[in-house]
Amino acid sequence: MAYDLFFQRETDADWSMHPRGTPDEPKALPLEFTTTERKVLKLLEPTTATFAVNIVGWARNKGIPARLSHTAIYSPKDTKDAYEHGRSQIQPGKLDWHNVGRAIHIVIYKPDGVTLDTAAYPRLGAYARSQGGEWLGDKPIKGKFGIIYDTVHFEYHPGIKISDYRKSELAVREFAQAQKRAKRYA
Ligand SMILES: [Zn+2]
Q: What is the per-residue DSSP string for 62-108?
């Protein structure tokens, strides 16, 4: 109970502007990497690793529980499997950003810890693009069994198209380096 100076009477109305406190941004989450995440970061092409830290850090700072999933380097066989299972439109034998450590999968789960929080992705996708990266979550992929959206998939290859990259010296070099890292950290 307080004395209302304006109406000159006792009142128990809450005078504060925000009775339950200001609904501000959720609390930032610590940027502590798990063992899996640290391994993924070592496997990635170095500028892609920096990009991964940047976007995961940005998300956690906003209270979005983004994590790097185990996927880092795909062997050509992994690429073939993804195609066979309708998860990718990259045909077997063709180089894919995963083969060179320039693609990552980021999981954002709902509080149940198992369901992907798909609604949380567009903001992260937009941020990734603002940093020179790419997100596949809003791009339909024609897989073997129909259209899919690869919500968790992010890439980093600023200014380079896959068709040009495949013909480049850089691709040859990065593929060799990536496969070497995959073997070393397997
Ligand atoms: Zn992927």
A: TT--EEE-S--PPPHHHHHHHHHTTS--PPTTS--GGGGT-EEEEEE
Q: Are 73 and 45 in contact (CB under 8 A)?
A: no
Distance 112 CA to ligand 1 centre (A): 23
pLDDT (tens digit per residue) in 92-121: 888 999 999 999 999 999 999 999 999 999
Q: How far is the CA of 20 from the centre of ligand 1 (A)?
A: 42
Domains defined for the chain, CATH in brackets: 28-184 (3.30.1380.10)
Distance 150 CA to ligand 1 centre (A): 7
Q: Output the CA 74–ligand 1 centroid distance in Å.
A: 9
Ligand 1 centroid vs 171 CA: distance in angstroms?
Answer: 18
- Residue 60 φ/ψ, nearest 5 degrees: -65, -30
**The model's pTM:** 0.81
